[in-house]
Design brief:
It is a single chain. The protein is an alpha/beta fold. It has two domains: 141 residues, Periplasmic binding protein-like II (D-Maltodextrin-Binding Protein, domain 2, 3-Layer(aba) Sandwich), CATH 3.40.190.10; 118 residues, Periplasmic binding protein-like II (D-Maltodextrin-Binding Protein, domain 2, 3-Layer(aba) Sandwich), CATH 3.40.190. The strands form two sheets. Strands 1, 2, 3, 4, 6, 7, 8, 9 and 11 form a nine-stranded mixed sheet that branches. Strands 5-10 form a two-stranded parallel sheet. Helix 2 packs across helix 10. The longest helix is centred in the N-terminal third of the chain and has 19 residues. It is globular, with a radius of gyration of 19 Å. The two termini are 27 Å apart.
Length: 276
């Protein structure tokens, strides 16, 4: 209960700040954005559009995982951290010890969709089957209604917020087995699965393409509708964090991203689910 209250407090303070912030600061300068490769396509599209309106501002964006982005906020080496998970209590503690107060902004919604090669006949898996695959207990596709071929398990690395959500919602806090092939980005997972007829992986909805076959979970397809109504079992919000109350270029960029008529339309263009 304390954790939930703490999170609601963070959101309330952030929302109140956005409503009252002044826009007096100039647009000239640099803005650094670092973190989740899931949020990366959103940030890239929004930054491209924003820099056309504010040509004096240079925005640099890099991936590397949610954990790395939050670490950069804690260390003060980036202006905005992208994260596909909420900040952990231990990270909040570390930030406060360094004199920073991390402020969260929910920027979009997403669902994590299991994907296979288009040549794989499997269309639907239960959460229990997915857990068995990623535990290494299920090793052949024929055991879950597929072809008689070994399963090649593709997973994100442990610094990834996508991995942590998968670990929570699918693995139920149990670890992915050591035989899984770890990838440093969602793009790398998508590429690895698209090139291997025996592979299974998981990506955010924005990374789906013609070279991947999405798999239903518990009979439910991962779509924008099932993400928003919560019926798809591996849904989640996406975040950006700032080091303390944002101001100047940072708050202007956040406000642009959250604007239903501006940044939120690029969320949809990136393949994700807008807030509104």
């Amino acid at each position: 209960m304390k954790k939930n209250l703490h999170r609601r407090g963070l959101f309330s303070l952030a929302a109140a700040f956005l409503l009252t912030v002044s826009s007096a600061a100039t647009a000239a300068g640099n803005l650094g954005v670092n973190g989740s490769t899931t949020v990366l396509p959103i940030a890239q599209k929004v930054a491209e559009a924003y820099m056309k309106e504010m040509p004096e501002l240079a925005i640099s964006i890099s991936g590397g995982g949610s954990g790395n982005g939050i670490k950069a906020i804690i260390d003060g080496t980036t202006d905005i951290a992208m994260s596909s998970r909420f900040i952990k209590d231990i990270e909040v503690k570390m930030a406060i010890e360094k004199g920073a107060y991390p402020v969260p902004f929910r920027v979009a919604y997403d669902c994590i969709i299991p994907v296979v090669h288009p040549g794989n006949s499997v269309k639907d898996l239960t959460l229990e089957q997915l857990k068995g695959i990623y535990q290494g207990a299920v090793r052949n596709w024929k055991d879950i209604g597929g072809p008689d071929r070994p399963i090649v398990v593709i997973s994100r690395d442990t610094s990834s917020g996508t991995y942590e959500v998968w670990e929570e919602k699918v693995m139920k806090k149990e670890k992915v087995y050591p035989g899984a092939l770890l990838q440093a980005s969602s793009g790398a997972v998508a590429q690895a699965v698209s090139k291997n007829p025996n592979a299974v992986g998981y990506v955010g909805i924005g990374y789906l393409n013609r070279e991947l076959k999405p798999v239903k979970v518990n009979g439910i397809e991962g779509t924008k509708t099932t993400t928003l109504d919560g019926s798809f079992p591996i849904s989640r919000p996406l975040f950006m964090f700032t080091r303390g109350w944002p101001e100047g270029n940072t708050v202007k960029f956040i406000n642009y991203l959250l604007d239903p008529q501006k940044g939120q339309k690029y969320v949809e263009e990136a393949g994700y689910v807008p807030l509104y």
